[in-house]
Design goal:
Helix content: over 70%
Shape: elongated
Distance between the termini: 76 Å
Strand content: under 5%
Number of strands: 0
Radius of gyration: 28 Å
Order of helices and strands: HHHHHHHHHH
Largest sheet: none
Number of helices: 10
Number of domains: 2
């Protein structure tokens, strides 16, 4: 699916060069837009290897080209104020939606794994950042070492584990917010903004050329948005494969086990004391 969309985007984006050449823009402006078009095509041509940043740059270049061609198509009358405002609202809504999608992707790829556990790499980072030392005075640089230290009665290690648990819970809460409300609401905002652009365009038939150009730009932008979404939802292709095999950890569960171990240890000591007394 991504390959088909990429092919369509590249094919239609190439068609912009003819539109630039035939526009009423100055030679200098045409040269600037042609350079932006060339950059966008180079980035889009990466296909599945295109990063989110590549797609954002390509999308921004295409939007700039479309905006300039829309102005040129509108002629002396220019683009109506209503259309400019509607386009700006659509652009802002799209940026806000993309930022939320990027945040969601970052959490799922670097903080929480597919099983809903804290990624080991993130757990190790948090454990190291806690700046806790073991009973030998050595810096603790892994999550498991932190758990082991806490299990041996290291108060600072236990506090750090409690903090990591709270951080993990905050990741879970935010991920749920993004998935259930924030992103769906942002998608709806983009849809409403796009519908408003279409409405303003329909209400201004005298600018039919600019309207057609804007519709062409919107179609390209929608295709790039689909590529961004597919890219953000794709599994993280870590070169070492570590992220795919990351079984993750559950700080809350480890904290509970720590309490159980402490209780069991105290109980064993109590029994031993009674036996020695007898």
């Amino acid at each position: 699916m991504a390959e088909d969309i990429t092919l369509k985007v590249v094919t239609e984006t190439k068609g912009l060069q003819e539109k630039i050449n035939s526009s009423s823009l100055s030679k200098e402006d045409k040269s600037v837009l042609s350079a932006k078009l060339s950059e966008a095509l180079n980035l889009l041509s990466k296909g599945a290897n295109a990063s989110a940043r590549d797609l954002s740059i390509a999308g921004g270049n295409i939007r700039k080209i479309i905006d300039e061609l829309v102005k040129a198509s509108a002629g002396a009358k220019g683009v109506s104020k209503g259309l400019i405002e509607a386009q700006k609202s659509l652009e802002e809504a799209t940026k806000a939606r993309d930022a939320l999608r990027k945040e969601y992707s970052n959490i799922t790829k670097t903080k929480i794994n597919n099983e809903g556990k804290l990624r080991t790499s993130e757990a190790n980072r948090l454990a190291t950042a806690a700046n806790v030392t073991n009973n030998r005075g050595e810096a603790i640089k892994s999550y498991q070492a932190l758990v082991n230290a806490a299990d041996k009665g290291n108060v600072a290690a236990k506090q750090a584990l409690e903090n990591i648990t709270r951080t993990f819970e905050s990741y879970q809460t935010r991920l749920n917010e993004l998935n259930t409300t924030a992103i769906p609401n942002a998608d709806q905002a983009v849809k409403i903004a796009a519908e408003q652009v279409a409405k303003v365009e329909q209400d201004s038939p005298e600018t039919s050329a600019s309207v057609q150009m804007q519709e062409f730009g919107n179609e390209l932008q929608n295709l790039i948005d689909k590529l961004k979404q597919i890219q953000s939802e794709a599994p993280d292709n870590d070169s070492g494969g570590n992220k795919h095999n990351d079984v993750g950890v559950d700080p809350g569960d480890d904290l509970k086990k720590l309490g159980q171990n402490t209780t069991q240890a105290s109980s064993s000591l109590g029994k031993a004391f009674k036996q020695s007394s007898i």
